[in-house]
Design brief:
By secondary structure, the chain is an alpha/beta fold. The chain has 9 helices and 7 strands, in the order αααααβαβαββββαβα. The strands form 2 sheets. It has a 5-stranded parallel sheet with strand order 2-1-3-4-7. Strands 5-6 form a two-stranded antiparallel ribbon. Bound molecules: guanine (GUN).
Length: about 230
């Protein structure tokens, strides 16, 4: 059983999982989403990304009823996040906001640096921090002088997808460091984007991988589903 299914079971929440074959066509996938859109037993729909090559991710997301879009990936929900009027919060950024809150770090007026500009993490993360009155800098693969920017971060969110990308010399003393990375090493070990061992002594608070952002993401998915 997957972790999402297991948490649904633990909460007593009804769930259906469709593990579709890789050769599923666009039409079949869209038809399934449309069926679930009309199913009163189902309040939330999550299409696990990335989809295999040949399937049109955007078209599939656009098919999800925005009221059942517990990932908040549909353009209607993305737009609502942009203007700060939203019911569904994208799960990974939502979990990160909970953890920042738990660290005791106030977001208001702080320099928040997000490394990564994906639609799933970087962009919505930046918006949530902005809504909390953070001063937000979005960095990405083309950013020049990255270290000079990250060094001034009170809150640093790493969503790069490269193991040990954030090193101790990039982090300000006392910063809150959030590691969104999920990198599978050749030996099968899961690591984040942050060099945890060396950054931990510098950081005021830091999230581990595994056991940090991941479990929070699933919790927020459950929360969105209850909202739905
Ligand atoms: N793939 C990686 N993260 C996510 C997520 O939050 N939602 C979905 N649907 N797919 C993902």
């Amino acid at each position: 059983m997957g972790r999402k299914e297991a948490m649904c079971a633990e909460l007593g929440m009804y769930s259906e999982k469709y593990a579709l074959p890789a050769e599923t066509t666009q039409e079949e996938l869209v038809a399934l989403v449309e069926k679930l859109n009309c199913d009163d037993k189902i309040h939330g729909i999550l299409v696990q990304l990335p989809l295999p090559d040949g399937l049109d991710e955007k078209a599939v997301i656009n098919t999800i009823n925005p009221e059942k879009d517990v990932d908040a990936f549909h353009p209607v929900n993305v737009g609502k996040i942009m203007i700060g009027d939203y019911d569904f919060v994208p799960c990974t950024p939502a979990g990160i906001m909970e953890m920042i809150d738990e660290s005791g770090m106030e977001v208001e007026g702080k320099h928040c640096v997000v490394i990564g500009r994906s639609n799933i993490v970087g962009k919505p993360m930046s918006m949530l921090l902005l809504h909390k009155n953070g001063t937000v800098t979005i960095c990405h693969s083309r950013t020049k002088n990255l270290k000079e920017i990250t060094k001034t971060a009170d809150i640093l969110v790493a969503a790069v997808g490269r193991s040990h990308f954030v090193t101790a010399d990039m982090v300000k003393e006392g910063a809150v460091v959030i590691d969104v990375g999920m990198n599978r090493l050749e030996n099968g070990k899961l690591t984040g984007d942050v060099d945890f061992e060396n950054v931990e002594p510098v950081a005021g608070a830091i999230t581990p991988v595994p056991g940090g952002v991941g479990p929070m993401t699933i919790s927020m998915l459950m929360k969105n589903t209850i909202t739905a």
